[in-house]
Each structure stands twice: as structure tokens, then as C-alpha cells.
Amino acid sequence: MSIKQNDSVFQAVCSVLGVDGFNEAVILTKNERSNVIEIVTQGIMSGTVDFSAEARIKHDTEAKVRTYTNGMVSNHLRKDKRLNGEVKYEPKNPGSRAGQGDDQLKALKALASTLPAGYDRTAIDAAIASRVEELKASKTKAVKIDMSFLPEEFKHLVK
């Protein structure tokens, strides 16, 4: 039976630091972090740590698993309350990845990055902002509103 990835990171950190738990956020030295990554990587490679079949196909060498584990350890040090001092994780730039897979948005951002210094980017920045809003709007769920329960003064708002 294998253990969850977050539990493997927690156990590895406890093992490397020689403690059972933490009262505050864990800060690892470069060497300690390397040891944690090695322990978790070996756990994934041996099958004692959860790793999906799809992930095994994508990360088919120990080096690729180690790269994956490096990011996973960083993620759990930030987000696991047992390791971050019981703090609810808050992303630094919420929504910064909006539209990441959209080709039009990628093209606009690429164009903006190639413009010479001093070029007036107002129109391109506006187009980027507009596209991000379009993408956000397209992700909103369709809501069915029963008009019979809606007061008359609000019925004109329903499209």
C-alpha cells in the first residue's frame, strides 16, 4: 500500500529534521531540502508513494521524477498546514494564469513583449485585458432563473 504525496513530504521533512511535528513554518536548508527530495523521489520510484499511471508515463526516468518531486516539495511546504505553521495558503497572484491555454491571448502577450521600449502599448494592453474578461465570462455557469419567482422590477435584467 502506498501513501499520499503530501504525507510522504511531511514524513520526509520530519525524518530529515528529526522531529515529529512543527509549531511554526518549516524552513529547510539547501542540504535538508535535497534530502527530503531524495527520500520522496525514492518513495515514488519504489511505489511506496502514490504516483498515477499517467504520471509514471510522463515521468519515466528517475531524473524526471526528481524534477517533479522538487516542485511537489515546494508546493507542500507552502500549502500543507502541518508544514507552513497552520496558515491557510493564499496565492500571491490569484488569477494570474487566467487564459493560459488561449492561443489568441498568447499571441497578444507575445506581440506585447516584442514591442520596442517607449512604444505606446495602450491598445494592446486593452486587447489583452478584454480577452481575459471574455475568457472569464465564457467560464461562468449558465444559470436557469425561474421568472415566476422573480419580482417584476428585476425581470428586465434576465437575458
Question: From the structure provided, what is the oligomeric state, counting identical versus distinct chains?
Answer: single chain
Q: From the helix content, strand content and strand pairing, which structural class follows?
A: mainly alpha
Number of domains: 2
* Inertia-based shape: extended
Mean pLDDT: 88
Tally the helices.
7
Give the biggest beta sheet.
none
Q: Give start-end ranges of low-pLDDT stretches.
A: none
Q: What is the helix fraction of residues, given as a range?
A: 40-55%
Instruction: Bin the strand percentage.
Output: under 5%
Radius of gyration: 23 Å
Distance between the termini: 53 Å
**SSE arrangement, N to C:** HHHHHHH
How does this model look, in words?
The chain is 55% helix and 0% strand. The protein is built from 7 helices and no strands. It has helices spanning 5-17, 30-46, 53-58, 62-79, 103-114, 122-138, 152-155. The mean pLDDT is 88. The protein is extended. The protein is an all-alpha fold. The chain has 2 domains: 5-79, no CATH class; 96-159, no CATH class.
Write the layout of secondary structure elements.
Layout: H1 5-17, H2 30-46, H3 53-58, H4 62-79, H5 103-114, H6 122-138, H7 152-155
Helix pairs in contact: 1-2, 1-4, 2-4, 5-6
What is this structure, in a nutshell?
Helix content is 55%, strand content 0%.
Key phrases:
mainly alpha; 159 residues; single chain
